[in-house]
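Protein modeling request. Please complete all fields; requests missing the sequence field cannot be processed.
Requester role: graduate student
Desired output: 3D structure, token encoding
Chains: 1
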Amino acid sequence: MSARSETFRGAPGASEAFGGDLDLDGDTLREECGVFGIYGHPDASAIVALGLHALQHRGQEAAGIVSFDGRVFHSERRMGLVGDSFSDLATIERLKGETAIGHVRYSTTGETILRNVQPLFAELETGGLSVAHNGNLTNGLLLRRQLVRDGAICQSTSDTEAILHLVARSRHVRIVDRVMDALRQIEGAYALVMMTNKKLIGARDPLGIRPLVLGELDGRYILASETCALDIIGARFVRDVENGEMVVISEEGIESIRFARAQPLRPCIFEYIYFARPDSVVNGKNVYSVRKNIGVELAKESPAEADIIIPVPDSGVPAALGYAQQTGLPYELGIIRNHYVGRTFIQPTQSVRELGVRMKHSANRAAVEGKRIVLVDDSLVRGTTSVKIVRMMREAGAREVHFRIASPPITHPDFYGIDTPEKEKLLAATHDLESMRQYIGADSLAFLSIEGLYRAMGEEGRDASCPQYTDHCFTGDYPTALTDLAVASPRRMAILAEAD
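Delivered output (500 residues):
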């Protein structure tokens, strides 16, 4: 495993064709990142590590923590899971100080290499600055080109680095003003946690597309992507950071600054469908309850003549529960997931790979055989995994397989931090409902309508003139300018290979 341990001096003042490989995680949407920070706590780095454990679902490719001990910044950035790198005492002891920030990563911009692992750090005129970023800048490429043209030297291929450069180049004196100057130049979706020599700073994009919450533990403030990260350490939820708000935490307490004009909150609806942990509360709504409501609405819209309801684990479980409760049909575990299979299980040949895939997911023949089943999944992307699931159920003896998707058809790509394929690789963008059904091999196929989704969210329906959520993957209604799409013939960024 690659690793980097660093110390910084702080001056005063980041359509496959289906085959034998049945990986139910292989054709899902990927979240971009999770962030966590705490100010002024004697166990800062250990608390951040625990918080990152709770946010592991938001990124499994890499993790990092940067701390500050009043004089020196300390950084540990590693490839792999949080538990692989930040569970040993020696690592935590190297991350000295009472203020720390952390990051879990799934790359959407920039390759998965160590120099892209966050938090990123830079030494500025005002002192050290470390940044952890959840989301994606829709003008990040343009900003980067302008910065490089003006002489900036970029060490990563992540759009987060542009934020560091913008702060560094600001002509304001105070670090808070410099950060605000940078925020007013970036576009897209972001939740930022930043650490300076004296402050912990959080900021959320003007539409609140990406989530960020404020918590408190032992009288010390915390910033985190989700409330589940507060729960794991016994912290108290204070409130959501508002859209277009910057919170500044220091020895003087907490200060709230609005850096963008007030506009209606428009959070990403996929946080509720798939990304957030079920036990989190996002913008005042319990995610588990929303997902069960989605299942209820799906059952109302698209019932099926069937014997049992089966979730596609794990993300389809709450919706399947809601579907079963609404229809009165039994809920059964027809697909069993083994949570203890290592990520690096050796699969040297195709025949062994075909055997090995059943270590991760396998059909529960006793529940499926001879039954008419309803499979409930959270979304359908390329459709390749759905093909495999249907085939697995038929091989286990299912008499009929009815597929129900707990979201509308995904017809447009995302540019705000969700790793979606290009439009031509989205099954719903290139096929009608009947051809999709034939492709995956189900007896019937149905999606939740966009209006049904909004009802599940507690709304009367979708307000087309001012949508309550960011839902462009279903509607094509992008909430911000997509500046980088207008950049003609994007030039490939230089890639520096790093040895393990």
